[in-house]
Each structure stands twice: as C-alpha cells, then as structure tokens.
Amino acid sequence: MSGGTLLDIRNLNKTFHTGKGGVEAIRGLNLRVREGEFVTVIGPSGCGKSTLLKIVAGLDPAYDGSVELGGTRIAKPGIDRGFIFQEPRLFPWLNVERNIAADLSLRDPAVRGRVGELIELVRLQGFEKAYPRELSGGMAQRVAIARALLRSPRILLLDEPFGALDAFTRSHMQEVLLDIWQRNRTTMIFVTHDIDEAVYLANRIVLLKPRPGEIAAIFPNGLPYPRKQASASFQELRLAVLSELYGRIDRTEFVDRAGV
Ligand code: ADP
Ligand code: MG
Q1: Does a structural domain hold residue 23?
Q2: Residue 117 included in any domain
Q3: What's 19's domain CATH number?
C-alpha cells in the first residue's frame, strides 16, 4: 500500500532561543514516513506538534539534525508540501474558486480545470462563487484543503485542522479527507490531540511526550477502512494509546476516563 521513504527525520532537535533563555521543544526525534502513508501525531498541548510540522513545512529552518523530503534537506517552503491550519485562513474578499486558485489565474484553462476538479473533490460544487462569510466552518476548511492541494503536493501537513469544528462536522470532514487520501494517495501528517481521530484516520500513530517533544511510542494501525469506532479492535488500540499517554494506571480507572 505504501511506497518508499518520503520524509526522513533523523535526530531532530529544536530549541527556541528567547530573552529568558532556551526552550527545548523537540529532542532526538527520529521518524520515517513512507510515500502514501497517513500518519497522525498526538500529544498534549505544548509537546512540540506544531513545531514539528512547521519544520517539515520549511517555515522554521533553524533546527538541528536532518529533515529530508525525497532526499533533499528541508530549508524553506515548497510546492511539494501543502499546509492546513486549524483556521481556514481564506481571503475574505475572494470567492471560493479564487481562494483555491490563489496566485494563479482562473483565465488559464489548465488552472480552471484543476480548480474544478478540486471543488468536486472537496464536495463544494455550486459554491464556486460564494464568499468565505457565506460558508460554514466545515465548508471553509474544505476550501483550505482544496487550496493546499492545488499544486498536487507530495505531502499534506495538517495542524489540528478539525479542532475548531463541532463533532458532526468533524466526523464529516474526516470522511472527506479519507476519501481524498484514498483517491490521491497524498502522504498525510495530521496533528491532533483527539485520540479517536488519531486512531480513526492513521496507518501509524506517533505519540509525543511533553517538553521536550520526544517520541513516546509509535502504534501501527492496520485496521481496515472504513473503520468502526465501536469495534473491539478499535477500542483496544484506543486504550493502548490512552494507557501510554496517561502512564500505567489502574485499568478500571482509565476505562472510566476513556468514557467507554
Ligand atoms: P503543540 O503544537 O504541541 O501544542 P508547540 O509546537 O506549539 O506545541 O510548542 C512546543 C513548545 O515550544 C512549547 O513549550 C512552546 O511554548 C514553545 N514554542 C513554540 N513556538 C515558540 C517560539 N516561537 N518561541 C519560543 N517558544 C516557542
Ligand atoms: Mg499546536
């Protein structure tokens, strides 16, 4: 299902130098992501998830260690990577299709064709001319996804993209994203602090420890898609992640905490 290594992170260390001294955000992180793989990264707030994604995006080249995409060191942003934030960050004065086309001209038939394909992919047919203020949160985030896919990036980096959405919309967006992944096989790195979301989406779940961010555990997830959250195998994996996250605690106690 997945190809060779696309992203290779070796001994990544990141310290922010502030007026009050250094803040060590990531320590000794090693991770290889294969072409076509869907990886979720989870961990408590402040554990370095956004820092990690920004480094892969090329937005923060001041790191120690090696971060390579397709064999090339990441030092700046590039069209081979798409980024999606928690907020859609659309241009309020541009309609849906112009937000997706961004700096490219819709007068170019190739651009127009590509934007049309993307609108269909994110299920926004009929809303091409709508403005951001006319869209729901989920629709606006679908525009952001389409825009990130415009130049067919090799990898999509998503930083808690559904964190601001209600539960119903979030679950719909998970389906839309899985559909995109299954059709395009774009490699995904998806940051979330929601364990259910991490287990529902990923081929592999990377759990980070807080301060500094180090990998606590990696859980392969071979459950077949579409996944059933109520199934015993889903719950088993979810509990394994939870127990690693909260440490070894009395099983009945954490079954309560897990709300199962
Ligand atoms: P997460 O996304 O997991 O919540 P972040 O990657 O945003 O965590 O932050 C990791 C740590 O690095 C935190 O302790 C945060 O305060 C610190 N940090 C993040 N960005 C900066 C910055 N620009 N300057 C100083 N410290 C930062
Ligand atoms: Mg963050």
Answers
A1: yes
A2: no
A3: 3.40.50.300
Is there an atom of ligand 1 within 6 Å of 50 CB? yes
**Residue to mutate, 51, 86, 192, ligand 1, most ligand atoms under 8 Å from C-beta:** 51
- Total domain count, the chain: 1
What is the pTM for the complete model shown? 0.92
Ligand 1 atom closest to residue 54's alpha carbon, by position in its atom list: 6
SS3 162: coil
**Do 117 and 85 touch, CB atoms closer than 8 A?**
no
Residue 14 alpha carbon, nearest atom of ligand 1 = 12
Structural domain includes residue 107: no
pLDDT 10s digits, 40-99: 999 988 999 999 999 999 999 999 999 999 999 999 999 999 999 999 999 999 999 999
d(CA 217, CA 212): 15
How do residues 190-245 score in pLDDT, each as one tens digit? 999 899 999 999 999 999 998 788 999 999 999 999 999 999 999 999 999 999 98
Q: How far apart are CA 83 and CA 103, in angstroms?
A: 16
Q: 159-173: b or e for each residue (b if 16 or more CB lie within 10 Å)?
A: bbbbeebeeebbebb
Give the range of the structural domain holding residue 209, as residue numbers without chain letter: 5-80+153-253
